[in-house]
Specification:
The structure holds 2 protein chains of 2 kinds. Chain A is an alpha/beta fold. Chain A is about 30% helix and about 20% strand. In chain A, α6 runs parallel beside α17. The longest helix of chain A has 20 residues. Chain B has a two-stranded antiparallel sheet with strand order 1-2. In chain B, α1 runs antiparallel to α8, α2 packs across α7 and α13 packs across α14. The radius of gyration of chain B is 37 Å and the shape is flat. The chains are: A alpha/beta, B mainly alpha. β2 of chain A pairs antiparallel with β3 of chain B.
């Protein structure tokens, strides 16, 4: 019953009159042959290439290719003159380091091969922020960005470092002697040694004012915490300790307050048996945009920003034991009451988090959590990864624009791009007496700065960080600087007249203050150290919080909520093709940002999304008007978007320091007035249609159901497995058999009980859709980037995609009853029309899908050249050199996971991404072949990694322990949703998961017997 | 006329025998000359020099050379420089002498930057005498050897000339015989004519030419065409199958590195230089610092020569100098200059990118001898590709080779289970899944 729930990938699928969609579902191939290949004789005659010419060309090129193939090229091998002891060709070295670019902070491991960093892994040993998200995984490619600065510049011309120092020292001394104000802007460095260095630098040049500037501000939360606890920091939360989370516009699975919470959240969501009863987290989310956290919540309540503030005030009253004095709409009050009850019932096991950009609201959140005495709430060890101060930044920018400041030094920032007053700032910086930009890449600000100091990438740098009070991490170079660059801190030290380097300073500081006698080498090896010296916080006093402003909040016009996408963040890595091609988990759009709007508002304004006949998505443009600024933005109609709100993501719209292909989207910072992410705007329809590269309608499953299985905690607890996870039945001689039973199997079974047999389990309950696995797969397997145009043609090459399915929020029975009561065509039209209403707040399921490695693989049987074959270890092998590109396998694959190389994606100017330049190709994994044109490819279950594990065991002469076998995706999965291992090892985690009641296979009824399995999603729909 | 003819013959034959006689005399004399030259080479080495050489190589050669300064001074004629008694005590315990403040000892110690000479208390005075005899020994003047080789050269070339003389003489004889036959026949014809015998030329019946017969015979044409097609297909197939197969590929390398000398004559273990073959997929071309482990002391070649190919001692020594230039080794001062020039070797064994091959798996786990794939490397003066490196070649070996399971805990369970399944005692690589596509192609 529960299984007949209808899922859809796009609200258009609910419209039976959508012919395009019908066609798409019918067609095996999305696009037709080009028009001019028709039988139209005239066109053919006119075409410059006649049939004869074509044959000539074909003949000539065949002959040429044959002759060219006869002589092999001479390949040179150049060994080291003096080989470093730790580098052995063919063996990977791992180094612990830290990424800290002002937005992403994480302790990570870097895999290097022959001295080249090629992959990022999570540093799972690190107690804080030891998990890499999609952007951090992709950051290794930014190291090999061909547009990085190659050396220092003076007024756009190359200059030597010696001259650079001379000029800078002269300029700084000049300014200092006249006591002219110079502003130095840095992002949050969270680095104790850098802080010392900057303080010393400011002592030498007292006319310099240091301002910490976070491109995307968390100012209100910082202010609130500083006000109550005395430190400019953020309270930390440990979600694994609670069973109730109420979120109010807090995308903590995304970038809320620096992110990094998915591991604890997944732990809380894990189903635990207590007294024979399954228990799990209960999570309610109030929000406007459809965020990653909202879609993972058990209950999601769409509401406007003003309503969110009211809900917070309401909850605040109830927790304080006061009768609520806030007036809420009836429906919203019902939900808020549920949340309040749950908070009160759970007490210390509950927590509330909010991202409302308002100091009062943030104070209220701190008070509620301390009143609840929440176990998750950890103000005593606050996070230090956001320290920006918007009011100081605002006054600094005003100083520059008004001419009160004579100089500007920026490090790792691009204020012209990231501030509301960008245009004015641009003019002002041009006229400044002194402007110096420390940057590793050209950007809008460095473009107008007089001096540009080329700084290295973080993988070429030293650094130390205090991510959380008492938790220190180190970063170390994993490669010698590729270009003539110097670190910001080293330059400051030299300018302050010091003779030692940043590295010496770090080592000294750590040995004296942090390590407490333990070894520096060990800290460097581990990448982190914990110091007992903790920051002292003040005891908070919440007595005088006045919530009137929250209670009275209202909005007149449309509310624009600016947010950051998991794939682009604040936009530092906009020139990273992996991130550009990474589809947003929710909208499934790549290569763009866009205005998300509810269906209701879109209809009112007349905005449309159109599925074109070739499978691509087009959208109307809208004008977003804020004061006198106007921004033309393409529109995506987003189910679940609160009425009266629109969303727009940061990070796009950059034009300088990017390859042409990467210059996508619009700059949302242009609307980031006063660093407030909520703006009151007017939306009107604009002319034209935008072409999106959306993978949403691609790879449709041809109407085959039973793909996503989900149930509620109640059903899970009370009903038998057969009810919520039934095995499909097949009738033979009028007897029903399980589809997996031998009776109904046409295949000869191969004995797989000996040796390794790999299985991958994916828990739909824990998968948050973050997409770290997608990027990890890209980097491990040399998956090419195809570009926006090709993605529009459904030719994306992702080996691993994360399907996102919307479903109706109303119960199944209701849905079903409606569907079954349809009588006649006319009725169906109106009824399906009505069912569209459900799209206002759909439930969402993420499902990572890669090659399922079927034991009875349909692809293997249809390959005419036996390029696809099965291994004993359960992997479905793909021999690229054997493949002739018939694509039969892709047609016969029920999961649509095979990808065809329509073009040569490396060394081809048509695809000017990282594989087209020598520098970018350095990121390629030397253990995996780069596929050529005309070849089918797909997930291999990272056979290069499993083979390496086996070889290591053979070399050591020992058995393989569970957990040693990994794939790139399971390694990258912080939540533990993906578990990989050997099912023939009876003690392995994955063999237990295989016997779990929640286990099912994708399209079980097809009888493919896959080696990838899924675990049924369970929602905690408890109605308190 | 007949008489006349006879006298002609006699002259020719006499002339021929005369030249043969001279030829033999010439060979005999030159052969004698070679033998006498070879007798000359037995040297007048004394037993002392021989024993000294042995001792020198065992104890001194690590730091000293005869004619050149190395870690320590050159030792040629060292007995002339110092008093013999002083040398005895210096060699037996130089440190004590330096400490005691012997002026000569301190001078030497300081000249060589305070590097301490190992003490050799185990050497007796007579041992040291032998060593000194060796260092004083001046090998017999190379002039004698030069004259010998100079003499032998014309000998070998003269034998070549004689061959041609014989050939010319023989062809002359044949020519004369042909002329004689012709003359005899003409004479006979003339006699017949004079005797009135009429000789008519035989009339042959007209026959179809052989090629026409082939063309007319359809069966032969058909089989011929089929044969031609098949054989050309065979050759075309053979041609295409060898495209990309570089068996025997023997490029000229920037430094003439002789595996024959290193792995053959000196019996250096393959994995001493190619050490990463034990742990990595690459066997690794050794970095130059590995070469310098030995060549810091071996600055010149003193082994056997191959004169035919021009591999003289001088030639090899020049190659060692190339190494010094590349690694930046200053021989004079025995230190690195820091100016290095990496060597661009030409890669011989090239597997395509789509093949994954791991040396550690084969060498360390499978315990396969390097020679199995690389051939008799220890005999290769110039390295070449011994095996075809085709997939068929790999697969064949996987089919035939047994897995080395002894004392490898990894194989304990799987080998037992699989060998029971296949009913064999020892599993081949293929039975373990060594023929699966994905094991090598990913």
């Amino acid at each position: 019953m529960e299984l007949n729930k209808t899922y859809w990938k796009s609200i258009d699928q609910l419209n039976p009159s959508d012919k395009d969609l019908d066609k798409l579902e019918q067609n095996e191939f999305v696009s037709k042959l080009p028009e001019n290949f028709s039988v139209d004789e005239k066109t053919l005659d006119k075409s410059p290439t006649s049939r004869r010419d074509f044959l000539k060309y074909a003949g000539f090129s065949t002959a040429a290719a044959t002759i060219a193939a006869c002589e092999g090229p001479i390949i040179k091998s150049v060994p080291y003159v003096f080989q470093p002891e730790q580098i052995r060709p063919g063996i990977a070295n791992y180094y612990a380091t830290t990424i800290a670019d002002g937005y992403d902070f994480a302790s990570i491991l870097i895999k290097t091969r022959e001295g080249r960093p090629i992959k990022v892994e999570s540093n799972t040993d690190s107690p804080v922020l030891g998990s890499a998200n999609a952007r951090v995984h992709a950051s290794v490619l930014s190291l090999y960005d061909s547009l990085r600065l190659k050396g220092p510049l003076l007024e756009g011309r190359d200059i030597t470092w010696d001259n650079f120092y001379r000029e800078i020292t002269a300029a700084l001394n000049g300014l200092s002697s006249l006591n002219k104000k110079v502003i130095m802007m840095t992002p949050t460095l969270a680095s104790p040694t850098s802080k010392k260095i900057i303080d010393d630098f400011v002592k030498v040049f007292p006319n310099i004012t240091h301002v910490v500037y976070d491109s995307i501000s968390t100012d209100s939360a910082l202010n609130a915490f500083e006000k109550h606890y005395g430190i400019r920091a953020l309270a930390d939360y440990d979600f694994s300790k609670v069973d109730t989370i109420v979120g109010i516009d807090s995308d903590f699975l995304g970038d809320w307050q620096g992110g990094g919470y998915e591991k604890d959240y997944a732990e809380a969501k894990r189903i635990k048996k207590r007294n024979n009863k399954a228990e799990m987290l209960w999570h309610m989310q109030f929000e406007s945009n459809m965020s990653l956290t909202g879609v993972n919540a058990d209950h999601r309540v769409p509401c406007t920003p003003a309503e969110q503030k009211k809900v917070l005030a309401y909850l605040h009253d109830i927790v304080r034991g006061v009768s609520p004095s806030t007036s809420l709409p009836a429906q919203l009050e019902k939900q808020a009451k549920k949340a309040a009850n749950r908070l009160l019932n759970s007490g210390t096991n509950a927590v509330i988090v909010s991202g409302i950009d308002d100091e009062v609201a943030q104070s209220a959140v701190l008070e509620i959590n301390s009143l609840l005495n929440s176990k998750a709430f950890q103000p005593e060890e606050p996070k230090l990864i956001r320290q920006g101060n918007s009011s100081k930044v605002n006054s600094a920018i005003d100083d520059i624009i008004n001419g009160n400041a004579s100089g500007l030094i920026t490090f790792g920032l691009n204020p012209i791009f990231t501030t509301f007053k960008g245009a004015e700032l641009n003019e002002a910086i041009k006229n400044l007496e002194f402007s110096l930009a420390f940057t590793s890449k050209m950007n809008e600000t460095s473009n107008v700065s007089k001096f540009v100091a080329a700084t290295p990438h973080y993988l070429e740098s030293w650094g130390d960080f205090e991510l959380k009070a008492g938790h220190f991490t180190l970063s170390q170079p994993t490669i010698r600087p590729l270009f003539n660059t110097q670190q910001f801190q080293d330059i400051l030290l030299k300018l302050s007249g010091k003779t030692f380097k940043y590295y010496d300073a770090i080592k000294e500081h750590w040995n004296s203050d942090i390590l407490d006698g333990s070894s520096w080498s060990k800290a460097l090896h581990d990448g982190y150290a914990i110091s007992k010296k903790s920051i002292q916080i003040r005891r908070p006093n919440f007595a005088n919080i006045d919530l009137t402003s929250l209670r009275n909040s209202s909005e007149k016009k449309m509310s624009l909520i600016l947010y950051s996408k998991i794939g682009m963040g604040d936009g530092q890595q906009a020139n990273n093709p992996w991130l550009q091609e990474f589809p947003d988990p929710i909208t499934r759009v790549s290569w763009d940002n866009y205005l998300t709007i509810s269906k209701y508002d879109a209809d009112l304004i007349g905005l449309k999304n159109i599925n074109t006949s070739n499978g691509a998505l087009n959208g109307s443009y809208a004008n977003v008007k804020l004061d006198d600024k106007n921004l033309k933005v393409p529109v995506i109609i987003q189910p679940g978007q609160a009425k009266g709100t629109v969303g727009l993501s940061f990070g796009y719209g950059k034009r300088i320091g990017l390859k042409d292909e990467m210059q996508t989207g619009v700059n949302a910072y242009n609307l980031y007035k006063d660093f407030n992410n909520i703006q009151s705007v007017e939306i009107t329809k604009a002319d034209g249609e935008h072409e999106f590269a959306c993978v949403q309608l691609h790879n449709t499953l041809m109407g085959r159901g039973d793909i996503v299985k989900e149930t509620t905690l109640e059903v899970f607890n009370t009903k038998d497995k057969k009810y919520w996870n039934p095995m499909p039945q097949v009738s033979k001689n009028h007897i029903e058999f399980d589809v997996t039973s031998k009776e109904v199997d046409m295949w000869q079974e191969f004995d797989r009980s000996i040796g390794h047999h790999f299985n991958l389990s994916i828990d739909l309950n824990s998968c948050t859709g973050c997409g770290a696995c997608v990027i990890a797969c890209h980097s491990e397997n040399n998956v090419p980037v195809v570009g926006k145009r090709e993605v529009r043609r459904s030719r994306d090459m992702h080996w691993l995609r994360i399907d996102r399915y919307y479903s109706s929020v109303s119960t199944f029975e209701e849905d079903n009853e409606i569907k079954e009561s349809i009588s006649g065509v006319g009725d169906s039209l109106t009824t399906f029309g009505k069912m569209e209403q459900a799209a206002e707040n759909p439930q969402v399921v993420f499902q990572p899908v890669m090659c399922q490695h079927c034991n009875h693989a349909p692809c293997e049987t249809v390959c005419p050249v036996a390029a696809s074959s099965h291994g004993r270890q359960g992997q479905n092998h793909m021999a690229y050199n054997r493949c002739v590109g018939t694509r039969y396998c892709a047609n016969n694959c029920p999961y649509k996971v095979r990808r065809f190389n329509w073009f040569l994606y490396n060394k081809n100017d048509e695809f000017d991404y990282h594989m087209n330049d020598d520098l970018g190709r350095m990121v390629l994994n030397p253990d995996v072949v780069v596929r050529s044109r005309g070849v089918m490819e797909k997930c291999s279950l990272c056979i290069q990694m499993t083979q390496k594990t086996i070889l290591d065991a053979k070399l050591k002469g020992e058995q393989i322990e569970d957990g040693t076998f990994q794939t790139a995706c399971s390694n990258a999965c912080t939540t533990g949703a993906m578990v990989f291992g050997d099912v023939n090892d009876k003690n392995s985690k994955v063999s237990a998961l295989r016997k779990d009641d929640r286990m099912y296979h994708l399209l079980e009824h097809v009888g493919t017997k896959p080696n990838v399995m899924y675990q049924v999603k369970v929602r905690n729909s408890d109605e308190v | 006329m007949g008489n006349n003819l006879y006298s002609n013959y006699r002259e020719v034959f006499l002339g021929f025998f005369r030249s043969l006689f001279f030829f033999f005399v010439f060979i005999a004399t030159s052969y004698n000359f070679i033998i006498s030259a070879q007798e000359l080479t037995s040297a007048d080495n004394t037993a002392a020099v021989q024993a000294g050489k042995k001792l020198f190589n065992a104890n001194c050669a690590a730091c000293h050379k005869l004619n050149k300064r190395a870690v320590g001074p050159a030792l040629k004629g060292v007995s002339g420089k110092y008093d013999r008694e002083w040398l005895y005590s210096w060699i037996k315990n130089s440190t004590a002498m330096v400490k005691s403040g012997d002026p000569q000892a301190v001078a030497v110690y300081e000249e060589y930057n305070g590097s301490v000479m190992t003490s050799f208390p185990q050497l007796s005075n007579s041992d040291i005498d032998n060593i000194l005899a060796y260092t004083d020994y001046i090998p017999p003047a190379p002039v004698a050897i030069a004259s010998n080789s100079a003499a032998s050269v014309p000998v070998s070339s003269s034998s070549g000339i004689n061959n041609t003389v014989i050939l010319i003489a023989l062809s002359l004889v044949f020519g004369i015989l042909v002329v004689m036959l012709f003359l005899v026949q003409r004479t006979l014809m003339r006699i017949a004519k004079l005797s009135g015998v009429d000789i008519k030329p035989e009339v042959k019946p007209k026959r179809t030419p052989i090629w026409m017969a082939f063309v007319q015979n359809q069966f032969v044409v058909l089989t011929g065409v089929i044969f031609l097609l098949l054989s050309s297909a065979y050759f075309v197939y053979g041609y295409f199958m060898q495209v990309g197969v570089d068996q025997g590929y023997m490029p000229i390398q920037p430094i003439h590195y002789s595996h024959k000398i290193h792995a053959g004559a000196n019996q250096i273990e393959c994995k001493y230089c190619h050490s990463s073959a034990r742990v990595s997929k690459h066997s690794g071309i050794p970095s130059l610092n590995v070469c310098m482990n030995c060549h810091q002391n071996i600055a010149e070649y003193n082994g056997e020569e191959d004169l035919e190919n021009g591999y003289t001692k001088d030639f090899y020594t020049k190659e060692i100098k190339k190494l010094y230039a590349a690694v930046g080794w200053d021989e004079e001062n025995q230190k690195y200059t820091g100016e290095s020039q990496p060597v661009k070797w030409i890669r011989i064994h090239n597997l395509p990118d789509f093949v994954y091959f791991n040396h550690a798996q084969h060498v360390q786990v499978g315990e396969i001898e390097c020679q199995k794939c690389h051939g008799p490397v220890e005999e290769m003066e110039i390295m070449y590709q011994h095996s075809p490196l085709t997939m068929g070649w790999c697969i064949n070996c996987h089919r035939e080779t047994n897995i080395k399971v002894e004392s490898n805990e990894y194989y304990a369970k799987i080998h037992e289970a699989l060998s029971k399944k296949y009913g064999v005692e020892k599993l081949t690589v293929a039975q373990m899944g060594g023929l699966e596509c994905g094991k090598c192609h990913y």
